[in-house]
Amino acid sequence: MRSSASVLSEHGMTVVTRFYRRLFEHHPELRNLFNHANQRSGGQSEALAHAVWAYASNIDNLAALGPAVGRITQKHASLGVQPEHYPVVGEHLLAAMKEVLGDAFDDEMRDAWAAAYGQLAEVMIGAEQALYERRTTQPGGWTGWRRFEVARRVDESDEISSFYLVPEDGGELPAFEPGQFVSVKRYVSDLGLEQPRQYSLSDAPHGKWLRISIKRESAGDDASAKPAGRVSNLMHDELHVGGHVEVSAPYGDFVLDRAKDTPVVLVSGGVGLTPMVSMLATVVMDSGDRRVAFVHACRSSRVHAFREWLDDVAADHPNVSKVTFYERVAPEDTQGRDFDFEGRLDLAKIRDAVLLRDADYYVCGPMPFMRAQVDALKALGVDASRIQTEVFGVGDLR
User: Fold this and answer.
1) Which of 119, 116, 122 is nearest to 83 (CA)?
2) Which CATH number does the domain housing residue 342 bear?
3) Catalytic residue among 55, 86, 117, 199
4) Does residue 324 lie in a domain region?
5) Is 362 an annotated catalytic residue?
6) 26 and 372 in contact (C-beta within 8 Å)?
7) Predicted TM-score of the model (pTM)
8) DSSP state of 201
9) Is the pLDDT of residue 163 over 50?
10) Is residue 396 part of a domain?
11) In which order are the strands placed within the sheet that holds 387-389?
12) Which of the following is catalytic: 20, 55, 117, 128?
């Protein structure tokens, strides 16, 4: 296994590209489990290639992969991945390795990979089954997809709208941890596929509704920019009060530790503020005096979601402070009320606001933003063990 790591570092992308082609040719129904946009961009293939290489490289130290495996099992559970999917994936992954690597993938290496994959599959199946069991045995819980109705819709900014979802069956809602997400499934007619997307829950776990706040992903201005988000645009254009959507139970391990009373620093960029809103709303709901610093960066006031709500929370709760950065300031923006600093988020400028004794740090936003903030926190002396990040879609913080 270790000897194959160097080969996979060179040919990994070719292997996983061939793997996906084989998988979808033989099992087209599995396309409904995958994000088509990530498939088309190559991001999913890149992420899987890195995962396969990392597994081979750490075969004698699998504990190092624990956090990544935990994140994957949470995403799998939200998509309804089942034990019978694993042999199918294993078959086509090994076949793709043989097709690409040829004689280098001899019988000995194939047997090693088959055993190693079987071991990993067993671990992940067990973890996912435990997640399913926990959801089905808790009050209001379920597995698979449940039909929800939009009870209310609120435009939070020019780009972000909140959808208040209640079960169509009239049943109760499960408790969830602030910071968790749900998967939402929509049929995309031009693809002929059901497409799942994960959205953070953006409210406290009070049992009245599940709220998700979705950014409309518009197309870029030039040919090299990313295309418009199919599902986010469908949600904005077609999902109104009284509409219905299929939703998974809440999952995710990027969660606020409610057992602690030490300070919390929430650092977000753009729509990455949604799990932070859930965390702050939960602290407020718990009626404690736990100190919270809410640090947010966005492009301008026009896309600054939850601004008035956050102003009210900070005004009413002395334990809550906030700092806002706008990349571009409009003439009508009022410094000190709408924003505090112009330009990109620079934690060194606000070190007194974020370097709180015994604090835990939660970071969410676009991947480059999170890398920059994690590096900045470490440079300020924050121990990595106190920093948590949320990664949606593909990619990691390696």
Assistant:
1) 122
2) 3.40.50.80
3) 86
4) yes
5) no
6) no
7) 0.91
8) B
9) yes
10) no
11) 341-342, 320-326, 292-298, 264-269, 360-364, 387-389
12) 128
